[in-house]
Design brief:
Elements: E1 7-14, E2 17-30, E3 35-39, E4 45-47, H1 53-62, H2 65-69, H3 73-78, H4 87-100, H5 117-126, H6 138-150, H7 164-177, E5 185-188, E6 194-199, H8 200-211, H9 219-234, H10 245-252, E7 258-262, E8 266-271, E9 276-282, H11 290-300, H12 306-311, H13 313-316, E10 319-321, E11 327-333, E12 338-339
Antiparallel strand pairs: 1-2, 1-11, 2-3, 2-9, 3-12, 4-6, 5-6, 7-8, 8-9, 10-11
Helix pairs in contact: 1-6, 1-7, 1-9, 4-6, 7-8
């Protein structure tokens, strides 16, 4: 599969003309890592970016942090989040840190204004500067601090690649994806922690195992995956927020599908019922191409009912509008998944 080239995933129209195209790759695998469907090169290597967050949360749960600190579904889900920075998100992070006996200055993810424009605009009108709490990755970082405490490791420097927290998370990513540690390429994510580069199909494999962890060893890891899925299903708002695809996908399917975006055009979805998962990489990193690609892939796989597809229509074929709000084009998926099973 390594000779396969990227395919056009979506085209962007303006009037009667196709103005732009976005290329990329798709892999659909089962929990044994068998490739079932593909488009482009399913073996292409990519950084998982924030799509790794649910996998990074596994060792936090495995460590016993839930019982030790009394973490509820919102706090568990927000560890997996690229959240909007809405008030409930901020309040959840504050509560999380209090339970750890820590404060916002212990978070090393850096500040940025909330993704959610109404929340960001309100802060700017009030003259309020953002803090690390508003960073979309503050839940992941809170989980890393919890893991440091459980490992009896220093909370200072928890972001460095050689810290026990990061080494533990790397080991879990390796086990879930079935990629040896020395073959995972490390970079630095936007929030400062290590980010994992691996084949797209391997990311999908990790999600397939995450969704159906029965028989996963050790038993504590299987239990951690189940607890994470349960929390995300119970509190989908906390994995993203208002008007966000990650949240809407979980809500529309009543938790039957759970997915997570990553920056630079990455997305992974697990279908626990089937023990399968889907991973997408848009080559140019365009986010406008990502969600139409994901919804169309789910449609082709028959993972969405007609009603669910209708609920996700705004993400499937988004309209292109001008500054006056007039419809001037549309973003249209145009790929076809190919079965790799003979």
């Amino acid at each position: 599969m390594s000779d396969f080239q990227a395919v056009s995933l979506v085209r962007v129209t303006r009037g009667a003309m196709t103005e732009s195209r976005h290329q990329g790759h798709i892999a659909v695998v089962d929990r044994q890592g068998r490739l079932l469907y593909a488009a482009g090169n399913p073996s292409t290597a990519t950084f998982a970016r924030s799509a790794a967050k649910p996998l990074q949360a596994i060792p936090v749960i495995e460590s016993g942090a839930v019982d030790a600190y009394g973490l509820g579904p919102e706090e568990i889900a927000i560890m997996c989040a690229s959240h909007n920075g809405e008030l409930p998100h901020i309040e959840t992070i504050e509560r999380f840190l209090i339970k750890l006996g820590l404060i916002d200055h212990d978070l090393l993810c850096g500040p940025h204004y909330p993704y959610y424009e109404p929340a960001s605009d309100l802060m700017k009108r009030r003259g309020e500067a953002p803090t690390a709490l508003h960073n979309n990755c503050s839940g992941k970082h809170s989980g890393m601090l919890a893991l440091a405490l459980r490992l009896e490791a220093p909370t200072a420097g928890y972001m460095t690649p050689d810290h026990p927290v990061q080494q533990t998370m790397l080991d879990v990513i390796s086990a879930m994806s079935d990629v040896p540690v020395d073959r995972i390429t490390l970079g630095t994510d936007g929030c400062g922690v290590p980010v994992f580069g691996l084949p797209l199909a391997s990311l999908a494999r990790a999600y397939a195992v995450f969704g159906q962890p029965e028989g996963l060893q050790p038993d504590s890891r299987a239990a951690a995956c189940s607890k994470l899925l349960e929390a995300i299903r119970r509190a989908p708002f906390y994995i993203a927020g208002t008007e966000r695809f990650d949240t809407r996908l979980i809500q529309a399917t009543a938790g039957r599908l759970v997915g997570k975006m990553g920056a630079e055009g990455v997305f992974a979805v697990t279908s626990p019922e089937q023990g399968q998962a889907l991973a997408v990489k848009v080559e140019d990193g365009s986010m406008r191409a990502l969600y139409p690609t994901v919804v169309e892939a789910l449609r082709q796989l028959n993972w969405l009912t007609a009603h669910e597809l209708e609920q996700l229509q705004q993400f499937h074929k988004p309209l292109v509008r001008n500054w006056s709000g007039d419809e001037v084009g549309v973003i249209l998926p145009e790929f076809q998944l190919s079965s790799t099973v003979l």
